[in-house]
Amino acid sequence: MSNNVWPPPPPKNESESEKAARLAAEKEAKKISDEIDRALEHERQELRKHRPQTKILLLGQAESGKSTMIKNFQLYFCPSSFQAETEAWRAVIHLNLARFVNYLLYVLSNTNVASGGKKGDPNKDYRMFQMRLSPLKQVELILTRCLSAESSPMASPTDDGPALRRETIPEVSVRGGMGWKAFIRGRRRGSQSRMMANPEEVNDARRILDACKEDIVALWKSPAIHALEKEGVDLHHHARYFVEHASRVADLKYSPTPDDILRARLRTVGVEEHRMVMETAAEKGEEWVLYDVGGQRSQRASWASYFEDVNAMIFLCPMSGFNQRLAEDRSVNRLYDSMELWDTVCRSRLLSKATFILLLNKADLLRAKLRAGIRFSDYVKNYDQDQPNTVEAVSAYLRKEMMEIHRVYSPRKRQLHVHITCAIDPTLMAAVLNSMRDVILVEMLHQTTLL
């Protein structure tokens, strides 16, 4: 019999006095063992309490992909909490779809396309779409009120007119920390609950979308939409994906997939703090805190207050912005603005000890633009016209430029980790997230002198 069995079997021919002594000894041993177990568990709990949180700061201009990167972190490292938020994201997706369709109808009403060249005299098909899809304005109004503060000027629906411009598809914004996901789930109580639409209204919005789905599909396939693109109206918007899948997304039984959620958009204004309890093996149970700070110019002055004591800084540069202008200042090229912002971040002494990770993001949109014949060299004068107009060549150029800025202006020598990314590609992002996780964990070990 194994010597590792506890308690050991009683010896043969054991007397009553010997048995009593043995049982007393076993009881004392068990007591000591339990005390040791409690002490070890207490020590583990204390270590967990005092273990430094992993703090990660996400920086970049507005619409650079920070919020999508947060969703990738959650999907990959905290899948159960990601799944629990599916219902909240369904409302966002439906709002993205309704807003985009309303935008298409607005643009059609202000071009010659719908009238076949006679502005102000819409043809029969256009009038039909305008009439049959008019309930989507109510859908947009309900979901906008549901997701953002009623007093917010950013929450105005598309039928406000002046908010719409042909080159701009309007977005709904939420303020960081307002807990819009809790509003959707109906779990937030208190005075702020008046900002949430009635749950039955949200269900009404779903029923309206379901009733309109066939007309949405027909509108998207109509010659008028193709004519808009020929006229130069840029329809390469994130919500295009939802219109292309309208028969599924607008269905009453629709439940968002992870891919759908990654493509959903809701702009954050201010700072959004995301606390994630990691579920993966390497760091299971640890809490990582990610700060998503607003990227608009008016909000950048407040960034510095979040620079101290962060373990890693992830900067997102949207490569596809090379032919776009800032919404805040139409005279400023988005790519140039992003590079100037990177210069400022690299110079910061408050971030001198942080791990620097640079994500050259939106490779998919960059590829689509270059394949459509838009030349990178026409907008970036330092890029030689003889160089290839390909994603590989352009991303290599940007990588070199950004690395040089980091090398020259960093207050101390440090390694820079660079990745070419498409934040809506889960397969690609899995490899990038694993690499970033490893880099951050190694740096944490260095900081705690364990490596």
Question: Could you explain how this protein is built, in words?
Answer:
One of its GO terms (molecular function) is G-protein beta/gamma-subunit complex binding. One of its GO terms (biological process) is adenylate cyclase-modulating G protein-coupled receptor signaling pathway. By secondary structure, the protein is of the alpha/beta class. The chain folds into 2 domains: 53-78 and 278-447, P-loop containing nucleotide triphosphate hydrolases (Rossmann fold, 3-Layer(aba) Sandwich), CATH 3.40.50.300; 86-263, no CATH class. The protein has 16 helices and 8 strands. It has helices at 16-50, 66-77, 79-84, 86-109, 124-132, 136-147, 180-185, 199-221, 223-230, 240-244, 246-249, 258-263, 334-347, 363-371, 391-409, 426-447, and strands at residues 54-59, 173-175, 267-269, 271-277, 287-293, 312-318, 355-361, 416-420. The strands form 2 sheets. A 6-stranded mixed β-sheet has the order 4-5-1-6-7-8, sandwiched between helices. Helix 13 links the parallel strand 6 (312-318) and strand 7 (355-361). Helix 13 runs parallel beside helix 15.
